[in-house]
Fold this sequence. Notes:
Blueprint: E1 14-17, H1 33-38, H2 40-46, E2 50-53, E3 57-58, E4 70-74, H3 81-93, E5 97-102, H4 112-117, E6 131-132, E7 153-156, E8 161-164, H5 179-194, E9 199-202, H6 248-261, E10 265-270, H7 275-283, E11 291-294, H8 304-317, H9 335-338, H10 345-358, E12 364-366, H11 386-391, H12 426-430, H13 433-437, H14 443-455, H15 458-462, E13 464-468, E14 474-480, E15 487-492, E16 498-501, E17 508-510, E18 519-521, E19 524-527, E20 532-537
Parallel strand pairs: 1-2, 1-12, 2-5, 5-9, 9-10, 10-11
Antiparallel strand pairs: 3-4, 6-8, 7-8, 13-14, 14-15, 15-20, 16-19, 17-20, 18-19
Bound molecules: 1-deoxynojirimycin (NOJ).
1-deoxynojirimycin binds next to loops.
Amino acid sequence: xxxxxxxxxxxxxxxxxxxxxxxxxxxxxxxxxxxxxxxxxxxxxxxxxxxxxxxxxxxxxxxxxxxxxxxxxxxxxxxxxxxxxxxxxxxxxxxxxxxxxxxxxxxxxxxxxxxxxxxxxxxxxxxxxxxxxxxxxxxxxxxxxxxxxxxxxxxxxxxxxxxxxxxxxxxxxxxxxxxxxxxxxxxxxxxxxxxxxxxxxxxxxxxxxxxxxxxxxxxxxxxxxxxxxxxxxxxxxxxxxxxxxxxxxxxxxxxxxxxxxxxxxxxxxxxxxxxxxxxxxxxxxxxxxxxxxxxxxxxxxxxxxxxxxxxxxxxxxxxxxxxxxxxxxxxxxxxxxxxxxxxxxxxxxxxxxxxxxxxxxxxxxxxxxxxxxxxxxxxxxxxxxxxxxxxxxxxxxxxxxxxxxxxxxxxxxxxxxxxxxxxxxxxxxxxxxxxxxxxxxxxxxxxxxxxxxxxxxxxxxxxxxxxxxxxxxxxxxxxxxxxxxxxxxxxxxxxxxxxxxxxxxxxxxxxxxxxxxxxxxxxxxxxxxxxxxxxxxx
Length: 538
Ligand code: NOJ
């Protein structure tokens, strides 16, 4: 069974690069576009298909690029438009596609649109942002909260009004009810598509629209702890009016029309109380997003039951949509620590990667996860993330997963000749890419083998998924595809040896897979701590 070539992205692997922390080529301590270009051979050798680059556009960097001041230019810190053109050309020459990060929901307070909008109540951009009068007692117009803490409303003395911000006060929310705003976003998308980008990651894709009547959010009946921790009151509301509004669906269709003109693909970041429902809705029908990911597997819960529930739940609701399963990114503690606490990080990194690559959906890997890097410990004095500063020490922010990549075991891990913007973790330097290169059993070499092997297994890239009952911490599922032998996938996510008895009446043969520890004798698979087993069923 072959799949239409237009669905190539369903078989692909996405690799996220956080440009500040990839490789610095000019010694200013911050990674840059030329650094990514320099490492494209490494990326191609890893075997991934698409590189999603987090924002590199002009920005005051209050949220490290997720606060954009010019959608159509590169921040000098990262390089120039010419550097970007060279990056694209090199990527395409080594067979890698490039996906940029479009932050449509909000921009920087320094963006000329906001500077103009806040200057008066009747300028041409007056209605480009979400402005509201105070209540008679001076309070904000409603109870909406910011993900990064406090009210979602910030007072502006010039207009004597509040403006809305879902994140930092320096990230004003664009008013998508205004057709000019929608058009401006589609235009900036076209700007990059014309330069040759192959896809787009849509940041905060559920946040585009707000309720025009500004109704209060009701109290949450079930507190969502996947988007924020329980130290954050944001989870106490049901977010039905500040985001996830129905008007977003027709807007996403407009985005898709533009993408289709260029044969480009999209992945949306879905943050919602019931994120799986929006992942399903936004990717259904082939006329909105291609793929979506949520925070459902980015939580602290590493139990096999949790993973199974999320994937099964999505499967039940999805119809013809498509998930990208993400277990790590620049917003959450690294998976080798978050899920691998108390276990050997190398071993856990491998089993987590193998598990992720075996699930049904397009995997999105985060830079450094192929090296099984652990969460770095960044002391309070060095914390950069404003989110972490607000919620310290209950939530230490996102710097621990954003520290620079250690490429070598030399000074600063070979990341920079200057002072890195965040310290390079000593434990990463000891496990640097160059060190792993020469070790056949390293996480890096395992990742390369696993990715290459996955390509040869249509069951994994195109098949269906069906879970088997297994005692915790074993995650067991079967990948099936008409005309192919089904593949049994067993993963021990725990720190001790376990056994799993293969389903009766089905034989099994271990596949020549890339080196996870695990073996079968008389129908019983032994899985050592962090082991895995991938086998054909008879
Ligand atoms: C989601 C991004 O992944 C995160 O890093 C950012 O802070 C918020 N959106 C706001 O843009």
